[in-house]
Amino acid sequence: EQIEVLKGQIQYYEESAAMSAIAVQIKSQASVQPLEIGGWQPVGVARNAVQSLIDTLQFLGSALIWIILFFLPVALVIFLPLYLIARFFRRNRKAKAQPPIPPTTPQTPA
Q1: SS3 75
Q2: Where is pLDDT greater, at 8 or 40?
Q3: DSSP symbol at 37
Q4: Three-class secondary structure assignment of 41-65
Q5: Cα first-last separation, the chain
Q6: 3-state DSSP helix/strand/coil percent for the chain, to nearest 5?
Q7: Contacts of residue 106, Cβ cutoff 8 Å, sequence gap at least 6
Q8: Which helix (H) or strand (E) holds 80?
Q9: Distance (Å, rounded) from C-alpha 28 to C-alpha 34?
Q10: What is this structure's pTM?
């Protein structure tokens, strides 16, 4: 009985699909401009140049901010202790390398 019901449904769908109609309409949008080939537009070139300049300046500004806020503190944390340790050892080595100055007696003019 279920098979007959399913066959009936399939036949109904086939007949419904055969009687269905599909309508397709293709319309162009008025806002779309026609493609221009080979036309040089100085305004567009100037706009692209200004945008590239702005992008470059933004990059340089961002790089400067990164250097000041990130790389400089990291470099200080790493290199300041190394500099202080090297300076300490240089002072100690310099102090040990100099021979003591013997005391001199004042000479009296003759």
Answers
A1: helix
A2: 8
A3: -
A4: CHHHHHHHHHHHHHHHHHHHHHHHH
A5: 147
A6: 65, 0, 35
A7: none
A8: helix 72-97
A9: 11
A10: 0.42
Q: How many angstroms separate the CA atoms of 76 and 79, rounded?
A: 5
> How long is the chain?
110
The tokens describing 46, both together, are: 């100037």
For residue range 9-53, what is the model confidence (pLDDT) as tens digits?
Answer: 999 988 888 777 778 888 877 776 666 667 778 889 999 999 999
Give the tokens for residue 93. 């080595």
Over residues 77-86, the mean pLDDT reads 94
CA distances from 40 to 31, 45, 51, 91, 109 (A): 21, 8, 18, 70, 98
Q: What is the DSSP secondary structure assignment for residue 27, as one 8-state letter?
A: -
What is the mean pLDDT of the segment spanning 82-106? 79
Chain centroid to CA 58 = 11
